[in-house]
Fold each of these.
Amino acid sequence: MALDLSEPLQKVIDGLAEDFSDALIDVYQSSGDTFVRIKPEANVEVCRYLKEEHHFIYLTDVIGADRFTSEERFEVIYNLVSLRDRERLFVKAWLEEESPEIASITEVWESANWFERQTYDMFGINFTNHPDLRRMYMPEDFEYYPLRKEFPLLGIPGSIELPSSTPDSEHEI
Amino acid sequence: MFGQYIPILILGGVAVILAGLFMALSRFLGPYRPNSTKLQPYESGMDPVGEADERYSVSFYLVAMSFIVFDIEVLFLYPWAVQYISAGIGTLISMIIFILELLVSLIYLIKKGTLDWEINQFEN
Amino acid sequence: MGLENSFGDSYLTTKIDTLVNWARSNAVWPMPMGLACCAIEMMAFAGPKYDSSRFGSEVFRFSPRQSDVMIVAGWVNYKMAHAIRRVWDQMPDPKWCIAMGACASTGGMHRCYGVVQGCDNFLPVDAYVSGCPPRPDALMHALLEIQDKIRTEHSVTLDS
Amino acid sequence: MSTEDISKKKSTPTFFKEHQKALYKALEDKNTSIEFREKDPLGTDMVLNLGPQHPATHGVLRLALQIDGETIEKAKLDIGYLHRGVEKVAENKTFQEFMPYTDRMDYLSPYSNNVAFCRAVEKIANVEVPERANYIRMIGCELARISSHLLWLGTMVQDAGAVSYFLWTFREREKLYDIFDQIGGHRFTISHARIGGVANDLTDSAMAMIKEFVNTFPDELDAWHKTLDRNRIFFDRNEGVGVLKTENALEKGATGPTLRGSGYAYDVRKFKPYSKYDEVEFQVPTRLEGDNLARYYVRMEEMQESIRIIRQCLDKLPKGPVRTDNAKQAYPSKDEVYYSMEGMIHDFMMTDTGICPPEGSESFHSIEAPKGELGFFIQSDGTGHPWRLAIKSPSFANLQVLEKILDGEMIADSVLIIGGVDPVMGDSDK
């Protein structure tokens, strides 16, 4: 496919192709952004490589997505920015459906801490050796993962408790 | 002799009456429905964590002590300040010496570090 | 308990009623439960142009102990509902509640898992204000509704 | 005192028990970066909730603080008290239907959220936006930036103790509310942007009000500069407080004025210029110290720059249509709908299915919102509904930085640091 990459991005793709040829699965462009799909096991090395060699020093976001296909259902997308060459690159990894698991990249970028907690909260993707993997938004007592496609939009009634509407002056002081 | 204290007594009386009136009004006219949540300490919407009578850190205690020392110093200055002109030069000098002594204690306090509350901070 | 039940429903207690209601209605201190965009309109409601202190609700106390009306401004999340209920319980009686905006009244446009569909599921609401966010004069109208409600209350003999 | 019974003794939560326990557990084993003067042998460290309902937290942000006297030893943030699952809602709405939700995200500057979302959709569906619409959008964005910084100034200086600033800044904001009222009919959640352009043109009275605001606002700004820049109290309260060092500002993921206060001139308007920002010259103010005072200066100068941009936009405003008239991509104009059959059908189709980006395409577009870089990542499956819509919210990243700055500060200063980082909970809780 015609990849009209800008000059620095071309260097990045070539660098990736020869260093991580086995981990690199697919490189494609969609409406102006370049996406690199890698194997989930190699995400920490690829991210560290991109950070040290190609000056991608700023992690903008870690995005989870639910492809709702039978195999390789969940998707983790890292949104990287290189300030020096003014480029933005997306690194992707697809994960299996039952017990989706990927290594946490908090040791490469500290800002991944909260982004990964949010993806865990929304999709249930488990980030191994994450400093403190807790739910970001929903309370810990909530057992579902809201952004999965099978979770109903209106929520499951009774999954989160509501406060009692009767003032507890009925109970004793 | 007794006459000059009348204004103070009136002032005290009015103060007591007013305070009593407001307390009684709010007690009798206002609704009083205590319940367990209402009597709990307010922790901005959350359950209070730990009891309130934890031990305080030392710095509060030191500042309180130094406050008492300088407060009493002001107490001694009042009677002198009322008629310092007629009291003559002698009392002025003794007052200055008195103030200087307490100045020494203030410098000691500052050197000891009771007034700076910063914890030295490495990296964050 | 106190003055009122010794007099029963007589001339004196109606007079005390009007006095107490007059005092309460003209100094309704809001407890701003500012959650989302309605909170910005609530700030404008207290700000220089719409100036809520003309109607006696000058003081935006953030502690529940010194406030009379709780203005729930913004969509109510399930996680926040408990904190709101706790603050409501900790407000001294007599207290009233304004559900400001479509989201506080009925969940508004947020028909999804995170939002309680209307804060009257767990709060006794006295006045609903429609609008998203309602203009400050709409909130002022709600405040005047609350003041009318206070004036006609039989408050003193109520608490015997 | 093992950590077990500390958390047990600590709190007897009555609601969301696991959540509170997990939070206080995480607070205890967070390794703090400050050295204690002398560890209290009895281990009675006090935990305080600067909780969801608090004047200083600018919304519903909860800080669990472990404090020793006045100083914060460890801080743990707990957000999600305003979470409504807007990304889940987006998957069940067409693009144009979802647009009013973006108004309610960063509710201090709704106009720039609309523009961010519409530009992201235009990028994925490659829609051409006419010149005039681009300039109107830029004027709206800069006005929204000023109104957001005004509320930041009002509340932050009020946290430092001066109530008068709240009244002054709100008087200016009321003028901005009137301008937005003229432009789009609502005070601030204006939903004025459409996919493919803008809802309606700027009327002459709106133009006059903008010009009048642009002429009077700078000397208001100078008056505040005069009172605040040499104000001893404001200086001492803000200098060296909440320092985000330059070398680990990017590491921690700061964005917007918080990042620019620490020395990086990363501004999306210069990094990847969108709409017409490359034809308008302006500077990106930065500071090196990275403390609260630096963030104050950065935001004040940004307001100055916004005024400059609006002036240039007003001069360059070309004549022309306000929305593309391509029926598959944008709403037809109203008179077309009433007087022509195709117009009505197009209007109906636009409302029913809306714009359909190519199947399987995904794209990310971000703009420089007042709080930082606000980006929308859209995955489309060819229908009118987005398959996945992820929001990169600036306040979320700044809050992560806030949690790391707070260690070792005094409680009174934590109020100012929250004001300085200026999070908006609707934006960070999505």
Note: The radius of gyration of chain D is 23 Å.
Amino acid sequence: MATEVLWWIFAVATVLLSAGVVFSRSVLHSAIFLIGSLGGVGAMYVFLTVDFLALVQFLVYGGAVTVLILLALMLTRTDAKESLNGTQAPWAALAGAMLLAILVSASVAVKWPGDIDDAPTTIPLETISEKLFVDFGPPFVIASVLLLVALVGAIILARQEEGE
Amino acid sequence: MRDYALFVPEYIAAGWAVLVIAIELFWPKVRKDTLAYVTAAGALAWAVSALFYIGNEPESFQGLIQSDNFTTYFRLLAAGIVAAVSIMSANYLRDRTKTAGEYFGLLLVAGCATVYMAAATELITAYISLELLSFCLYILVGYLKRDNLSSEAALKYILLGAFSSAMLLYGMSLLYGIAGSTSYEGISQGLAARDQGGTDAGIVVAFMLILAGVGFKVSAAPFHMWAPDAYQGAPLPITALLSTLSKAAGFALILRLFSLAFVVDAVEWRWAFATLAAVTMTAGNLLALQQKNLKRLVAYSSIGQVGYMLVTIAAIGYGDATVGVNATSGLLVHIVGYVVSTLALFTALTAYYNKTGDDTIVGLRGLAETQPFLAVVITASFFSFAGLPFFAGFTTKLLMFQGATTDELLWVIGLAVLNSFISLYYYLMIVRQMYLFDPIPGMVRFRINPVMWVMSAGLMLGVLLIGIYPGPAFKAAENAAKPLFQQAEPGVAARQP
Amino acid sequence: MVPLENYLVLSAVMFSLGVYGVLARRNAVLVLMSVELMLNAVSLNFVAFAAYLDPERITGAIFAVFVITVAAAEVGLALAIVIRLFRNRATSNVDEAAMMKW
Amino acid sequence: MGAEQAWLLAAIPAGVFFVLALFGRYLPRGGDYLGVAAIGASFVLFFFVAADFLSFYDFEAHKTFITESISWSEIGNFKLRQGIHVDAITIVMFAVITTVSLMVNIFSVGYMKGEPRYYWFFAVLQLFVASMLLLVMADNLLLVYISWELVGVCSFLLIGFYWEKRSATEAAKKAFITTRIGDVGLLIGIILLWKETGTFDIQQIIHAAEAGEIGQTYLFVSIMFVFLGCMGKSAQFPFHVWLPDAMEGPTPVSALIHAATMVVAGVYLTARLLPIFEAADGALLVVTIVGLTTALLASLIAFAQTDIKRVLAYSTVGKLGLMFVALGAGSPAAGLFLLMTHAFVKALLFLGSGSVILGTHHNQEMDKLGGLWKKMPITGTTFFVATLALAGLPPLAMFWSEDELFASVNHEWGLWALVLAMLAVFATAIFMVRLFIRTFAGEPRDRQVHEHARETPLVMTGPLVFLCVLAVVSGLFVFNGVGSALGFPGGIGEFVFLEEPERYAIDWTLAGISLAVAVAGVLIGAYVYWGNSLVRSTRLAEAMPRLYAALRNKFYIDEMYQYVIDRGVLGVSYVVSWFDRYVVNDTGVDGSAQVTGYSGSILKYLQTGRVPNYAMAITLGVVGLTVAGLLVRA
Amino acid sequence: MTFDEGQGYAVLATLAAPLLAALILVFIPGTQKMAVRYVAAFFGAVMLGLSIYVFVAYQVDGEQIQMSLKWVWVENTAFLGKDGIVLNLAVDGISAPMALLTGVVAFAGTITSWKINYRNKDFFILYFILLAGVYGTFFSFDLFFWFFFYELAVMPLYLLIGVWGSTRKEYGAMKLTLMLVGGSVLIWIGIFAVFNEANLGTFDMQRLFAAGNDGTLSPTFQKVFFPMFVVGCGVLAALWPFHTWSPDGHMSAPTAVSMVHAGVLMKLGAFGIIRLGIQMLPVGAEFWMPGLMVLGVTGAVYGATAALTQRDFKLISGYSSVSHMGYVLMGLATMNQIGITGAVLQMFSHGVMTALVFLMIGALYDQAHTRDMKDFGGIAKVMPMWVVFYAIAGLANVGLPGLSGFTAEFHIFVGTFQTYPVFGALAIFAAALAATYMLRMFSMVFFGPFNPRWKDLKDLTPLEAMAGALLIASIVVMGVWWAPFTDRIGTTVAALPGVVG
């Protein structure tokens, strides 16, 4: 019962924070809401008993990504006071709502197979690591190449060349 | 099974990528065209090593990656594209950037990513390969850093790419939920075992989201809008890469995914492919009518081409395994024809662009006077796109549509043929510029780089060869297509509505 | 207990909010943040499915790991491009980066 | 040399045509001697053919003919044969054609001397004659049509010989197109007949028609179509308009056209197919009415014309009408006899007028002539004889033929037709006398012209004399005695006939009336026009100004045609062209292209260049597809 | 590769000659203009000789399809079964005269193009490719290659007209190309459908013909797709109302292209209707032929009417082509032996005479640079030979007996009367209109007072005269002695499905 209440609290908070990200009138606020929102998701992982992922979530998102984003925000700051929303925002809301309706109906309508006990089971870290490195070796290798590529790309794109 | 020998060619390619980057790292003054030729040599080595895999028994790496003729087919294709694009880039980059090692390295990596997209038989692998390819392309599109258009193109591409891959992922997650597996075979079985009671909104939503994701990759309307901008902003050889490698990879992924995993529930998605095909080809060709920039025009025309190709995917959904093999063979051979034509076109355009720096259509005025050979190559490529005989486009398109013809799809095929008729108009408008008008004052006859000349000539001969004697290419395509449909067990045959 | 659907609906809401953000926001960084929301929703989905459905109870979680990886790398790369554009054009608004159209 | 080789008659001139057309310009004197020789050869050969034919002519059965044909092409059951069919009608036509064209050829040597394209004239003349000869010996309707058209094109070339003159070109065009419209009917008729009988062979078709194998209505319609062709070629109302204009050609050509080749083709074909006309109820009546209408109309118009050749032309139209009247009366003998005598007389008249024209240095307006008899005695004399012959005075040729005509008309249709026919003859007599008086008698109206006038050389007067003799004696062929002497006992009436041979016997009442009419006509004409004064005729004209104007303007038929062509045919053409350009092309073809392009130019604005819009497209795409998918599944 | 009696080589050679010519020309430098001309003329003569050989060697009483050559291209791959795609060349009684026509017109066009000086190498390359397409279409008995060559024949037209043409050439070239390709779009769709419906895994036309006859292609299917083939091919045959490219295209095209285009290419359309329509879809043909008849008659009368008031030579010829091709379609629509034979005869006849007409127009236009008939008058004075040649062509056009036009039209009329007498009568009426517009042109241009503005016009050059003489010879031979043609055509036509004897 307690779990449920807690879950609802976190769930509502996550939604609100996510809404804050997209509705906030300040760039900086958005970024901060994002941290919260991502943290909420991390909490969900805890509820789902995948602690490892929660950890990753907090580290990668809460740490690296948000810092990166904040940095970028600083770097691209302009003095001009301008609206954060584009002209099509109302339509965007409509589209989002439609999509939401579809996704929710899909989530609810499906009778998910294998959903036997209506409860998550613990996923131990060892299994994850074994899966990740043994069963999913190739994607892992590719992912590492991907990271390398992203790294190289970020460097060559962001590097300031002489004359700039 | 963990047979690491299955990927020797990719080891070569990736190793060569590192080598190229290293060469420039340690020897910064190396001529950029030398790097290009080194890369091309690597791609050729890659291709040669790939030749040893032709006809091998299908073999799977842990159920994640499948090495069969289909993989080999795309391996050769990717190697060829990379080789051609790197040669194309030789002079282009020399004049425009200071560093080029990463550029060529990324080309090779993109090639490898393509191969894995074709080889993947599992969603995670497929997804990660797709992202790898996308990352390479994001960077390559924005490679001309000081060029505003290049940066803008990269930004649009990456933002929309991320957005659409989120869509794709959401679809994959729903699918995973429904089928309980991420391997294609598992998905297939999961879908087959699925309870059929009631309206199954989940599967529809999942398929449509995935469709949006892969549709974005191959730039199918209405997910195509990034393409013209990215094509226009990208460096010219990368535009070639976008319209060849990226599309080939997208179709490779779609082919394996839909023929192995999704064919069970074809009834849920086949109509969508037919619709997308119709919308895409019409939009692409109508929009191309009004273009003034060559790269944009090629972008729209390639969107039109994608529309044609999508018909075959719909055909896989509508027909049985036989139709599947037919349609897939047609699609594969058409991809080759399309790729060769596109490469020929871009080789010529790059040679021309290196000389003039002009990428508008009117810029081609009087090319038949100033550089008749290029005019011939460009004309041949456009005629090939339009599907005129003697050129690859005619034969491959005919074979593809013929393979894809089923009773339900005849209307789309009719529309496709009609569209290729519309496309003839704008191709002819370019031919008109080249042949019917006098050159811009001041333009005189010029020479082009002999390497480019040889490559243009070679590619044009390829276009002619495929157009006149498609037998071997078609045979190869069929061999590549067969593995996709051999595994379909009788019990997992497509459901009929 | 919390049923699976709850997670799914939560994820759907987050995803849709992310979509709204991408569609409505002008600043490229904000757009990226919205994309992150979407990707997180996806991860949540995967993990939820993994926890509830998968007999082996694991693949979804692995997928989530990859998604997180890719998302992080994507942010890095995208921000580099944003900064690049900002340097060239002194703006990071996506609707102003429209030199190429039609 | 037997009748089987009659095709040589046509082949020789045809061969010479090719020689002259290709090499004539390099030959001395343009090769005119070749032309004369060719026609001469045909003329001579004709006697051999005729002799051969008569030698085995069965005077008991009277149905003798000679047929020779070869297979031409074969498509399944559609077998075409080409060949010749020589019978009495053919022999008569041979006689007329070879004789007249030989005379014309000889005459032309003098008349055309010094003209440009001299060789070309002779070349076409050969083809003209050859086609006509082929026409009369063709054994099937297809060959008839072929030669028929060849005759038409030759007439086009010859009428338009002076192509530098706009009027000549126009006349040629008019002749060709007018007859061509008739030919539409002819071809339709031929094919209709073929459709029912499965053959083009004339004798087989006649046989089928007589045996009643063809439905009455069908037969009537088909033969009327064929008759349209005959009307066009033979210048029957309302197709007569081309013939008077055809005098724009060189005068010898006019002689040939009016006498022997072109216009008689229709008469010939009608005579040839007369059994079919007989078999089809009412067809003969149509022929008669057309003939009478034409005869009267033409005779009236001729009164008010002042050009010598034009007057003669209308007289030809009138006489052709009478020939049809004769055929309509069911008497091929009368028709062909009239044809023959008229041919000699009319050839003589035209050649005579040609002689006048040459002698007066190309003057053919009666208003400027007059008093030429003294200057041109031979021409004048022969012309005088011909005038009287045409007027129908005995014992000149046409008296006999017209007498035969009257007899058969009276026999077939009775009084009304007879009166009308006589009226036409009467009118002819008047205006012929007018013509002669105003040209040869009285005082010269134009001194200049008169002083320079002189008699023409022998090469021209020779044919005149020869034809003059024929104009006098050819009427005698109708008599048994003459016929027997020449090898066809019973005269022409027993030689050419439809069902029963009939021997000519003078019906004194008819002959008397006929004579009276002719004499009255001559006298009235002489009274009105004598003495070179136009006082009486002018008074006559002023008494009925509207009638005179109508006659002078040929009843405004040309104007009517002009109106119909300008407003009708060309109007339709303009409408069609407009429709083609603006509706089919600009709206249908270009329009659809423009709509396509336009939709492209509208659609391209969807591509705004802004990322949010693009993302919106993706989202809406997903939503749309999903909703559609759910609806499809639901 | 199999040949029957070695004569397949002749057919192959005929097809290969223009391709070889194009290939050789590629390697001749563009500056060697005389060399280009000699090579072109040589191959033109070779093609003429081979065409005559093919025509003569076709044995009248032999099998329908002779001199066949089979060269398997793709088979047993994916949807292609045995004999999937075969380079299957052969000649039947319809394609034999068509080959002859191509040879004659091609040779005439080649030597007419002697005077082209601007990039004549490129011109001849495209020209020979076009001819290869034409030959290939006539000879192919494989649907794939049939369509391949059919398209090939259309392809070079854009450049040929666009670069070497005159008078609104861009518009004319674009419209012509698009309309023709638009037509082939329909054919293409039809080919897909037929292949799919027959489900034989082969493009072999003879097997597909058999499928059309034995009901493998269902009657409903045939009725649906027959119009597609007919309209598709009909565009090229100037089927009303898809004819508007003809006046404009011909107005723009250079002489030799007009000759080949009007002379031969338009026949491909009618040929396609025979091959794909009548032979492959006999049930559909039977069902739809009255409709085609109506369109044919409309075209015949409409073209002739529109030609009456034109002032441009080429427009007259363009519209008269519409009219004459209307006859061809009528002949085909009769579905009887005489009518269809007549249609094929008309294809030949119209080919040679139109080629002659365009040759003459070109000879005048090259000097006068105007084609407005009102500007001329009395041209016979300075160009007598030209006038004679033109007049012969014009009279053949009019249907004058003794010239080819009559032979053909006569058979068509007879055939039409067998089934549709009223339409036959209309067609004959249209022939009279033809006389009207032709003579109107004669009298405006050839005759009448001489306009001294044209005193410097030269008569035909010897080369033009030679080309013209060749065409005239064909016109006259067919006009006088048509048995060699009808023998070949007639038997083959009789074997067409659904054709009444």
Note: The helical segments of chain C are 4-24, 28-52, 59-89.
